[in-house]
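Morning. Coffee machine broken again, so started the prediction first thing and wrote up yesterday's gels while waiting. Chain of 530 residues, entered below exactly as on the submission form.
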Amino acid sequence: MVSLNPVQIFNAGAEEEKAETARLSSFVGAIAIGDLVKSTLGPKGMDKILQSSGGIQVTNDGATILKSIGIDNPAAKILVDISKVQDDEVGDGTTSVVVLASELLRESESLISQKIHPQTIVSGWRKATDEARKALQNFARDNGNNEKKFREDLMNIARTTLSSKILTQYKDHFSKLAVDAVLRLKGSGNLDAIHLIKKSGGGLQDSYLDEGFLLDKKIGVNQPKRIENAKVLIANTPMDTDKIKVFGSKVKVDAVSKVAELELAEKEKMRDKVNKIVKHGCNVFINRQLIYNYPEQLFADAGVMAIEHADFEGIERLALVTGGEIASTFDSPDHVKLGKCKLIEEVMIGEDKLIKFSGVEMGEACTIVLRGATKQILDEAERSLHDALCVLTQTVKETKTVFGGGSSEMLMADAVSKLAAKTPGKEAVAMESFAKALRMLPTTIADNAGYDSAQLISELRAIHTAGKHTMGLNMVEGEVGDMEKLGITESFQVKRQVLMSASEAAEMILRVDDIIKSAPRPRQPDHRHH
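Came back before lunch.
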């Protein structure tokens, strides 16, 4: 009998990993990612330095870390994606969601080696997720109707969110900033109305909240520095035609004097444009593009404050908060909606002059000015504050809150374990593994602070089994404490999202039994057009 070579069905160069190996490489990749961000979890988490072509970042924001590392392992990529989704959906819990998913996979690795089929594990997990979600929901508190208590909830949530970030030393200061900013939004949850400006210099505690809107730009030369009852025309249009564009273009003239005529014509055009703009009845003109000296002078003569080169985000946000529209043509003044604002003036922050718009149309608009020693600190402070703002706006929409410090995870694990005890068959083993993965979150939080996690978690487990569900980790003392008294509160929405996303992602990776990589494209010889 002649042994036949196996049939080659893939292109040359393609690779396939079959059942066991495929699953293993998925698990290994996912678990490695979990271990990478694990050490950033909790109030005593560490930061990472990310070095890339764009310079260095120092951060402990899970999504930021995972976004910045190049990953080849497909399962690891799935985890990176869930951290992104978590970031977009609720803004915080990006590390937790990755750690939970990777712990679930670590558990499933040992289940599979016990010859339990992936589908059995999945169905056990599904029931466990449901049970955990119900337990979380039943335990959530809702103070949405009691304004004083709700504000306290928000402060606690902000403090809890910030305690694992760079801002932790000043968490009271920043919690107040964040809560004030979000409550100004009056439940609209439109984060665009909150403008963040980073100014290096000073310390983090010098950051403050300013009502109205600050634009990091200068007012043109010789123009009014302060305008009351401003009518703002916001534009995106070139205002640089006063330098004649003769150079580099072909213009035939029979005498040099003709060049001057051309220049004059250009100037006339510019003057017409400025006149058209002034006809709109605006006393402030803000342009996204440059404004050259000649039109700037014309605006000054007309008593109009002109601001040039306001970046796109600034302009979009300005249009939003002043209630104006961005114009690019000026032929029909009656169609253009001007922005309104009670007062525009220059203010100094540190060394820099900024333009402050106060009394804007959209009352909820405000600006948070962040101060700090280095660019990296400011960037990380911005990321931390952004997390806090997202969580708070989520909480204003969905006012339910749960307790933090690992108590929610222990509560869910407890519910899942009780369900597992009632379930016959192999699914019970899968459920128990789900509970174990949930308990890994508080375990990691304790480990990161160098506490004896085994001792603490077993204590917690006993307390939760007895039904005291407000107990969690007191990270200051390194002991079990009552989260209700300590005011360690988290948003229900964030916790629920962590649970749902992590279990879905883990389930998806668990279902994989085959990884096929397509063959790389052969390189073509280089025919570049020059």
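The chain has 16 helices and 19 strands. Going to sketch it on the whiteboard this afternoon.
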